[in-house]
């Protein structure tokens, strides 16, 4: 322990997903995002807690526990949050996620803030935005591009 209160290898914020089908989700995340399973703690026919690592980040997950009001996106009526993954080749990663069973929410496109990104929804209802930074954009340039984009949207 280093005194920070953060376990070695973790970051200050760690997403925790509630999933209807956590075991299948672990397999999907491995195929779609290259996730490595860290560990799982089964409880009867459910997964009480599991962790996977995507790149240098941990994602915690468990099966649904309706008696504790812990429900996944499908039983809540849709995703309530989105996860973002920065990676070296967004196009290849996006294609891999689609082949693994994700559905396209937004195709991969270059964005004015310097990222090339697209969004998929996994078979369990969670939204994942995949992105590669292709150029650095200053805050001033980003604000100017945002104003241009707002004008385009308003004209539609």
TrEMBL record:
It comes from Allosphingosinicella flava. This is VOC family protein. InterPro entries: Glyas_Bleomycin-R_OHBP_Dase, Glyas_Fos-R_dOase_dom, VOC_core. Residues 9-133 form the VOC domain. It holds the Pfam family Glyoxalase. Coiled coil: none annotated.
């Amino acid at each position: 322990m280093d005194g920070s209160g953060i376990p070695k290898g973790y970051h200050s914020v760690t997403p925790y997903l509630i999933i209807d089908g956590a075991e299948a989700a672990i397999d999907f995340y491995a195929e779609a995002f290259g996730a490595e399973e860290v560990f799982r703690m089964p409880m009867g026919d459910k997964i009480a807690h599991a962790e996977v690592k995507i790149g240098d980040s941990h994602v915690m997950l468990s099966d649904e526990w309706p008696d504790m009001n812990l429900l996944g996106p499908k039983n809540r009526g849709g995703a309530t949050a989105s996860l973002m993954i920065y990676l070296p080749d967004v196009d290849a990663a996006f294609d891999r996620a689609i082949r693994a069973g994700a559905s396209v929410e937004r195709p991969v496109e270059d964005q004015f803030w310097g990222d090339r990104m697209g969004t998929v929804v996994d078979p369990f209802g969670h939204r994942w935005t995949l992105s590669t930074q292709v150029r650095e954009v200053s805050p001033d340039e980003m604000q100017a591009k945002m104003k241009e984009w707002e004008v385009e949207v308003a004209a539609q």
